[in-house]
Amino acid sequence: MPHFLRKIRQPGRVFTLQALLTVLAVATAAFFIFNVHQLTVGYQKAGSLKQLWDIEWQSGKAFLDSTRTGFFQAFLLILGWSAYFRLRLREFSHIRLRRSEHKYRTIINHAGEAIFLLDQNEVVLEWNKAAEELFSLPRRTVLNNKLNDLHLDLNLDLGRAFADVVRTHRTLSYEVRLGPPGPGQRVLDLTVSCIRPDSGALAEQSDSFVVIARDITSQKQLETRMGETEKLAGIGQLAAGIAHQLNTPLGSILLSAQMVEEDVDDEDTAEDIRRIIRQTEQCRGIIKGLLNFARPTGSGRGRTNLSEVIHDTAYLMDKSLKVGGVELVVDEQRDSWVHGNRNEIEQVFFNLLANALDAMSDGGQIKVVITQGDPGEVLVRFSDTGEGISEEDLQQVFLPFFTTKDYGKGTGLGLSIVARIVHEHGGRIEVESAPGRGTTFLLTFPEARESSASENLIDDGD
In this structure, is the dihedral angle defined by the CA atoms of residues 254, 258, 264 and 270, taken in order, positive or negative? Predict the structure, then answer.
């Protein structure tokens, strides 16, 4: 582990310094007391300092021996005190290092991003709390282990990333996917930096690498939604121009069909013409709904019978249902009057029927049950026996432009329009499905209040 991360644990150091200080203090005091006592005794015998000096000088060898002994004792004291002060200074440096380490750990543990330190062999040297939360791995289990052995599923060759950082002498960023593909996959922004030893004791250390990981899943989702919003805005502008171009030929088709209907005597042919008229009106309604999708409006609403809407929509798609070998069953268990826009609600069931037909290529059954929901609500259970929806796709079916159909067969707008219309009507929509078990949509609408005849007339006119 690098020097600035290594914990210094020397439990006996403080005790050793205190014992050494005590010994030195006692020895120094004894040295001074002994020498002062010797001088005092000699002075008392000699009577004066000059006579004491003469006596000691004349003693010859004894004087030299006592002098050498004194200097040796003083040298030992000086050596001991210097050793103590050196150890004390080293202890001060250790204290500063421990404080610096504590400050460092406090900073990285309170960082919002996951930070971990690796050596050049990808062995984990440090792991902060944010990394513990991001990867769900405690620090004690990852230290001194190779990152690849932790099975983080980073989908990034760190060895190559380290080599690129060293080669370019820069901090590099990578966007990686964490975990297997699916709705639970997270997106991380990894920043890799190299710590190089400069000189002194650090020169013996090898390169280490700091990796900062930031979860940007929400940011990427927001960017995706903003992109979808821009697409929807573009569709709104495009639809506004297309609507003017399509409404003219559709109006001519509708007028021509109505004129032909007046001159036809055969009932079967007249029924086909009426179907053309209804389909043409439906096309005009879809164009209007596409405009409303970009700019929602709540006008033109009144009491609407869901049962009539469902039967009328089924009539429009009667031939498609027969060709696809699909049986439609409508079970009305209660009155189904709601407050809403009839044309928009027709789009809801038209899109649901169209999706159900696409999901039942080999035929099947569609069952629509109108029943009581929560108090004051009408519940419509729309079920099919189609292919079903996988759990991964189930969470995204109502997102704009999401589709599991082949290219050119779906735009991904159908169910998003359904969800928007239901929500604008104050209702809720839920979906239950599993592969091979069909799909069930649960649509809840607020029940309509009793209205006057004049309100119904106004609504019919819309």
Answer: positive
